[in-house]
Design brief:
The protein is α+β, with helices and mostly antiparallel strands and about 260 residues long. About 25% of the residues lie in helices and about 30% in strands. It binds biotin.
Length: about 260
């Protein structure tokens, strides 16, 4: 096993460490309902029912990083998507530290992290609305990073990779230091977001974004749209430029960006 040590996470984090769980998101939600405090982190070595976005399975065998952060933030509901970009930036920063030197780390809308064009990490955000206050009682940010292995890629899905698949070996595959770096970067990003708003988070994300200004295919439930990834708006929505039609703002969906062959 590559992850024998526990990270010493800074305050206000509180770490709940598990060998195995159905899903760290599910466990964090149960803890939220039982009154667990803001910044509780649930970390498991493996998941038996790991979940991805849009109801997909997240294959969760031993050797990868699976954790969820519970947040209790009294902010308007419509700003909460912005937190998934805070998380994506933290994941991308931490992966860039752990990946082989010079590896190209990208973010892909809404919050996938890619290394050399292949997906290495994903984020699943879930929340319990507090309708009366127009906010969330709690939010859970679930993060999975492929460290030692990655699932076989299904037909039509984005190619996947792991740190091991990128040539990292030995201590470089320890999960605990990755969690440590990622949790600290997330806390720093959260402070930036609280103090300065989404602007700097958006700029940090855009600096690493894949496909801006180029053609994209967006898959929505029951609809596939081809357009140009025009911009990321002030709420984190994808602004899609369409031929001869008004722009569309996309708040949820799967984005496919054509792979550009490297020229020598
Ligand atoms: C995606 O589909 O890209 C999002 C994947 C999110 C996976 C993580 S692993 C930890 C947490 N627990 C889950 O069940 N899912 C998230």
């Amino acid at each position: 096993m590559n992850n024998t040590t526990s990270p010493q996470l800074p305050s206000p984090y509180r770490l709940v460490e598990l060998e195995s769980v159905d899903s760290t998101n599910a466990e964090a939600k149960r803890l939220a309902e039982d009154g667990a405090p803001d910044c509780t982190i649930v970390w498991a070595k493996r998941q038996t029912s790991g979940r991805g976005r849009r109801g997909r399975e997240w294959v969760s065998s031993q050797g990868n990083l699976y954790f969820s952060i519970l947040l209790r933030l009294p902010y308007p509901m419509e700003t909460m998507t912005q937190l998934s970009f805070v998380a994506a930036n933290a994941v991308a920063d931490a992966v860039a530290v752990a990946a082989p030197r010079g590896a190209f780390v990208n973010v892909k809308w809404p919050n996938d992290v890619l290394v050399e064009g292949k997906k290495i990490a994903g984020i699943l955000m879930e929340g319990e609305p507090d309708i009366a206050n127009g906010s969330f009682k709690w939010l859970v940010l679930g993060i999975g990073v492929n460290v030692a292995n990655h699932p076989a890629v299904e037909e039509g899905a984005y190619p996947a990779t792991s740190l091991a698949g990128q040539g990292v070996s030995g201590e470089g595959l320890d999960v605990a230091p990755l969690l440590d770096t990622l949790a600290k970067r997330f806390l720093a990003g959260l402070a930036t977001w609280r103090n300065l708003g989404f602007g700097p988070i958006r700029r940090h994300w855009l600096a690493r974004a894949k496909g801006i200004g180029g053609p994209v295919t967006v898959r929505l439930p029951g609809e596939t749209i081809e357009g140009v990834f025009g911009a990321l708006d002030e709420n984190g929505e994808l602004v899609l430029h369409l031929d001869g039609q008004p722009n569309r703002r996309i708040s949820a969906g799967d984005v496919f960006i054509p792979q550009v062959p490297h020229e020598i």
